[in-house]
# Entry
Amino acid sequence: MCSRFRDSVILSAVLALSLAACQREERNFQGLPSGSAVANPKVREVELVPGGNVPADSRPGPYEENAYAVSQGKTLYNQYNCSGCHFQGGGGIGPPLMDADWIYGSRPANIYETIAEGRPNGMPSFGRKIVPDQIWQITAYVRSMSGLLRKDVAPGRTDDMQVRPQEQSAQKAKPVQSAIPKSAEIP
Amino acid sequence: MSAPSRTDAGRPADDDAVRRQLDETWRQAPGIWGWLSSVDHKSIGKRYIVTAMVFFILGGLEAGVMRAQLARPENSVLGPDAYNQFFTMHGMTMMFLFAVPVVTAVGLYLVPLMIGARNVAFPRLNAYGYWVYLAGGLFLYISFFLNTGPDTGWFSYVPLAGPEFSPGKRVDVYAQSITFTEIAALVAAVELIVTIFKNRAPGMTLNRMPLFVWAMLVQAFMVLFAMPWVATATQLLAMDRLVATHFFNPAEGGDALLWQHLFWFFGHPEVYIILTPALGFVSMIVATFTRGPVFGYPAMVLSLLSIGFLSFGLWVHHMFATGLPQLGQSFFTAASMMITVPSGIQIFCWIATIWSGRPRFSVPFLFVLGFVVLFVIGGVTGVMFASVSFDQQVHDTYFVVAHFHYVLIGGSVFPLLGAFYYWFPKITGRMLDERLGRWNFWLVFVGVNLTFFPMHQLGLDGMPRRVYTYLAGTGWGRLNLLATAGAVLVVLGVLLFVINVARSLRRGVRAGDDPWAADTLEWATTSPPPPYNFTYIPVVESGSPLWERSEELAAVSGLRTDVRDVLVTTLLDARPDSLHRHPPPSIWPLLAAVATTILFVTLIFTPWGAVIGTPLLLLTLLGWGWPHGRDHREQRMVEQTG
Amino acid sequence: MPVLFAHALVQQSYSTLNPASPQARLVDRLGDSMFITAAVVFGLVVLALLWAVFRRRDSDEGPAEDARREWPLRTSALVATAVTTAILFVFLILDVSVGRSITTNPGKGALQIRVTGHQWWWEVQYRDSLPKNWVTTANEIHIPVGRPVVFELKSTDVIHSFWPISLSPKKDQIPGDENSLWFQADSAGVYRGQCAEFCGHQHAKMAFLVIADPPAEFASWLARQRDTALTPTDALARRGKEVFLASPCVMCHAISGTPAGSRIGPDLTHLASRRTLAAGTLPNTRDNLIGWIVNPQVIKPGVRMPPNQFSGPDLLALVAYLETLK
# Structure
């Protein structure tokens, strides 16, 4: 291939690699500013809303490509006892998180809302108990459980007894809208 | 092949014709292609040395930034994440990219010359080793600039370096860059062992070998036995991180201490791998600059061998604080103290040599004197560390930092600098400036003492290692500032060295074959040596081939000059045994190194890397090994006529 | 503030050269004797070197092929080697004997304290035959003077190392392992210790205090620590307790006597009785507490506690409450 084309291909590959690496390895200790708009994604809770349809929030989460944040999210998932209902992603009291079924949406903003506002049928609202930056970290981790994050960003195994394969090896489970499970329906 | 003759009578009348033909046969191809495809150990050795010195300067800059951060309490030059990357890079650069490669490189350059050979035993493998080393260094530094530099220390303990506590690719870069440098070291070890065993000039029996050659032989065996363990450890770590194995996971039957055992089983011999060639440098310099052979040759050889052997029995002294059983630890105390004895024997023999000789105060000799002072300081604090209970106070403090910098800088860098001043004329044909050299020596000597001596006190006062800052109330500020001031002097001294080299390359006094009136065979050829090293392979008749000859050196005759024939001799007595046909310059080692790089780098991102990289590597090895038709037939002819 | 803290730190003993326990003293003496020997050996070697280099020579002296010179040189080298070996042997014996002294089991009367390393703080637990008497605190360890104390050392995450500097040599805390060390404080005082194994971002600021009290004071300290947190009487402090229970704090911190029971972060039940905050990083003052709560990342970047948003009045109330936790 001609020299200029080859050079630009090489340059763009190098840039892509650098950006990916820089983002993945960033350790942002201050976190996201709590009061900013990013802490309040605009996601509908109910279908019925005056003034017509509100477009869904499709912005990528802030930590989709940050391995450090995802790893922090994994630690928090266990420390804040998400595993108490969702276990290590297999579900139990709460629905599984490592499969392709999403009741309230799989986009980062949806998951953020689920954690922050809670959901009917048992998901508590953590918005006043977990700072937004940490909710985003947990969000990113939850997405990694079904293989939705890049392999080099998803976490490896923990130093505990192994009850699930590492998220790095999770096959990407294409998200599918699922209905509320029968067990959770209000009789 | 006719018998070697003692006079000119057996040689062809026209030495110039011989030299022209040898030059034609042995020179590397012209231009960039020639440089890339060179299999000349001197060409490879020179670039190896230059690359290692560039890494030395980079490592020194990292240290400079660290010292700037630590000069004052609660300083803000570097935050904790950046500092962690800096101290890790400093350690890795100095240990993996500078210390071992540079002494190996000087060895690869000098050993064939010292033993009267034309090249190392496997010329293309030598080139491959360099390219893999360069690739490893570039891989590490490019990762560093992409914020993916390792940040858990050069010995990277698990679980901190494991998958849970070191997310991202930083530690994978650590593990894999070590693979590169370890392959390069193993390649060099193989080269040195085979070359020293089988390519010595006729008559150079083992007990006539120069002490530097012995040192490189011992070092090569140490590399062979130590390096595979760091390779194992890093691959296990990479597997834990990438494919969820449990080697270091206590909850699933693994053990965090396993890493420490594996690493230090390599890590302790590693520091003696760095030291042993330096001991060889010192022997050569002391002999030349006191105008007499080193006192006690058998004792010197035996102590080198003991150091090599004993160094494998000390590793647990890095783990005295981990709670291992006391009796077992005491064995390692005994072994760690024992290794002082052969090191001491070396120093006593050198002092005896100086005492009975006539010292010349050139710069190489100054560096040797500096070495003795600094190495003994480092050595005696090392003995203090051998004691379990004292170690448990000063382990992981600045006392350790002081100790190992004294033994590494004093024990290795000083002899290395002396070696550069000594052999620069041979390598380049010009002398380094004596006056600049003296300034270089004194600045570095004073600077090193000013930087590292206060660290002993800091460690005793409770300052731990690997801290990005410290509180004002600890009172550590003054000594830290002093250490930083010393570091400035060291930087200036090294700068002077670089200036000296740059100036002397262009305007240095031209050196003849033997400007120092030295004794070993490399001084019996031109400065710089021709591509074929020696016009005639010398025949050695004593341990002092140049000082003890009464007439011209005897030489081997009957070797062909139109092909790359190399004389192979027997192991103990160096009697001529057979001929080995060396390959012409080849680009395949470089291509194989590129394929190796692709294999290793892609592997840390995806297992498909093995699928991509392995066939590439096999292809390049195929090209490397493909027989050249004409040479192959000729080799068979030579073997048949024997 | 830094001046005050500097003064406070200077009061604390934190050098291996100021041993405050028989164990540390044994090691210090061993270190001293090795140091003196080392200095003497160094001096002798340098003197020998200088003599060898600068001794007066006749102009026609040559290398030591001369038998006349060979014999004394050989003898000197042999003697030097023999002396070196003897010195090393003596130190080996000394070291083994000191090692045995400081590790021999102190016996049944020892107080047992469990110290668990976390990134980047110390969990300190005093156990008892009655679980209700267990005390869990953080970063500050009180011990009685003159009584042996055995520390059980564990870690929940990475390798840390418990190093009470002037009181005892260190011992690593390795996940999956349990190590122990023991010592006995000679006299009352405040002794600073450090983490001594690189454990991540804030290894540099992971210190602890060992406070040796006379036995009676120690007993009353322990009794107070066993109490649950007092219900605040002051209105501002009561408001502060409500703020605490409604905020993210309860996700990580426990205060016994309240519904907050999380063991992820340091126990705050008796926060106000401690001299420092953030593992020995800051003196425990109101301003430092406010600064720490609002943004710990400025003081210890990388620490697990996030910055917190409180309104001005809420923050003051919270701090008022925390200051009642004596």
Notes: The longest helix of chain C spans residues 67-103.
